[in-house]
Fold these 2 entries.
Entry 1:
Amino acid sequence: MDYAPLLRLLRGSSLRQLQVFEAVARLRSFRKAADELFLTQPSVSIQVKKLSEAVGLPLFEHVGKRVHLTEAGASLYAACREVLEVLGRTEMKLADLKGLKEGHLKLAVATTAKYFAPRMLGVFCQRYPGIEVSLKVTNRERLLERLHANIDDLYIIGRPPESPDMCFEPFVPNPLVVMAARTHPLAGERGIALARLAEEPFIIREPGSGTRMAVETLFTAHGLKPRVRMELGSNEAIKHALAGGLGVAVLSRHTLALEGESGPLTVLDVEGFPLPWHWYVGYPSGKELSVVARAFLDYLQGEGRLIAELPVSGPEDLATGALSRR
Ligand code: PGA
């Protein structure tokens, strides 16, 4: 592509404005772009306005509550994706020349993986202190959007898309269990039937969550429907609702990482549980991985499971790589 005309057109616009525009165009929302970039919504609007002034045409139109790209916006979006991708690849090549001494790792993980992914990153960063990392935590649906838009280096997800264009491997078990307050009438009962569980009020994650998808798939396969009392967008909020006696929920056992089963919640003994899910790590198959991303992937596949299963205040020898010698 000859970038000269585009550069002339965008003279005076910053790369930051292009990044902000790219996020709004991809997410079709000023609010979601602001959340993703840790900016306020007014500052996103200002950046887009400046860019639109530089181009001399409106880039978005609002129909009701929805944001649409204008024709000018759509062309700029296509060019922008190309420019940002070329810059990303160049940055990667330059970083690769420096090996693991420097570089950047962009990791995106499903909400529930936040219970172990930061620890894994922490150990990796201690081993390679020159590497900068960024971690995006979002639900399954948003994660898939990022994956298709090729935003990050690597992704951790509960159930990767079934497509030959994806390169994902399981690396850590993700048992899904039924939780309730320790004082719940079903606590301590053995072999609870799924049909019996379906009579209980359920607290369920938001649409787009992988955990919710697992619950719905299971109940539908048994011709049942959970009695949903409440829908919440956070595992921690669900745990508080359970502790308050509001019902039962299916969550990853990882959500008990800090308090274990000695807190106010207990795991119910329901037939067919725990569901033997796994965490997968991967990337779209055409993607060229940087040296840093490749090293992180190898590290997760070699030591990820052990780190995820360690108590939260794990031994200090993690950083030195002593785990791999066990
Ligand atoms: P969730 O993801 O946090 O969106 O429920 C878990 C998953 O990907 O299975």
Entry 2:
Amino acid sequence: MIREVLKMGDERLLAKARPVEKFDTPELHELLADMHDTMEHLSGAGLAAPQIGVGLRVVVFGVQNNPRYPQAEDVPYTVLINPDVEPLSQEMEEAWEGCLSVPGLRGVVPRYKSLRYRGFDATGAAIDRVAEGFHARVVQHECDHLDGILYPMRVRDFTRFGFIDALFPNQEIQDD
Ligand code: NI
């Protein structure tokens, strides 16, 4: 079911989410199905459970020919529960980000260039991956949501933060 995505300003987006304790339950599968449907419907690159008002440490992400991120490299569709993110170096890189909770806007955000992420899938099976570039960026963005952090809080240079149609007048970037 497509769910309503909370917008920045809603205090539920600022709360620290709690870990999932039971895996492979009907409730968890329903949450994941709703997150998948909502993310697909809005062409998101990812979605965190707090964005639909559920305070659990659950994120989904994945990118393939995404109209909101036409330049982005592919990222496999992933369900990541109770994530742990560990940067593999202190090297940062800057790139544009958007967020379904911050519609119509983009900002340049510094993120760790490469990282290892661990967590669990819906059945409780372990996930352990190394990622870099856009994949690593999406993981950091989504996991930030679990700690109540929205990407504008990470923007350092507000000359590179604004409305999509004003920032990129000649590009077709779909957003709501
Ligand atoms: Ni977001």
